[in-house]
């Protein structure tokens, strides 16, 4: 098998199984582990996979700006958001950060809901202007235009004086072994702080984000209380269950 054919096969296996182990690939493709490691390194350098210890993960959806993501997978995101509504109760203090799925959720909140929403996302705050019974606390900072959220030390310090019943975390990449991750260190630090001040954490993730990893770890997946997703494999769902994460699919 030529190198190009072998690497294409690796990508195919990774797309189907979400994770590959170098020693297993060596047996399946009848080549040495050193050859597989070189293949994985080349594929990682080309931005096609994410190399991890002993193997590789799917790289997941590309990092694109907020306005572009607003037009992607909308039907699925709306479906996930509707499932999340049942976890939101009257008089809750909700902490909601950025993300287009989170925005879909906010757009579906009943106009009669009485709650407090803390957010660092201008689009989330704007979407709540017609909700007369929801108090909105806007967290300041430096606007990160790619994700349309405020970040920085001021953001983290403001959060230190707050407490939330439920944190609705925008999910970029998630893997049950590595955790929840994002491309930006500053965003990872803010999300980590948000998680630390919340009694429960809910994340919504389209299937293309499952078993993927980015550069900066926010927290382990066991910190999630609820994961709302779709098309999750029974084996991966079982892993989350062992971490005491309630998976809704």
Q: What features would you describe in this structure?
A:
With 249 residues, the protein is an alpha/beta fold. The protein folds into two domains: 3-58, Arc Repressor Mutant, subunit A; 66-248, Rossmann fold (3-Layer(aba) Sandwich), CATH 3.40.50. The protein has ten helices and 15 strands. The protein has helices at 3-17, 22-29, 33-45, 66-69, 74-84, 100-107, 122-127, 153-159, 185-196, 234-242; strands at residues 19-21, 49-52, 55-58, 93-96, 115-119, 134-138, 142-144, 149-151, 164-170, 173-175, 179-182, 198-204, 216-219, 226-228, 246-248. Strands 6-5-4-9-12-14-15 form a seven-stranded parallel beta sheet, sandwiched between helices. A three-stranded antiparallel beta sheet has the order 1-3-2. A three-stranded antiparallel beta sheet has the order 10-11-13. A hairpin with a 2-residue loop joins strand 2 and strand 3. Helix 2 packs across helix 3. The longest helix has 15 residues, at 3-17. The relative contact order is 0.12. InterPro entries: Carb_Metab_HTH_regulators (IPR050313), DeoR-like_C (IPR014036), DeoR_HTH (IPR001034), NagB/RpiA_transferase-like (IPR037171), Tscrpt_reg_HTH_DeoR_CS (IPR018356), WH-like_DNA-bd_sf (IPR036388), WH_DNA-bd_sf (IPR036390). GO terms for molecular function: DNA binding. Residues 3-58 form the HTH deoR-type domain. It comes from Aeribacillus composti. This is Lactose phosphotransferase system repressor.
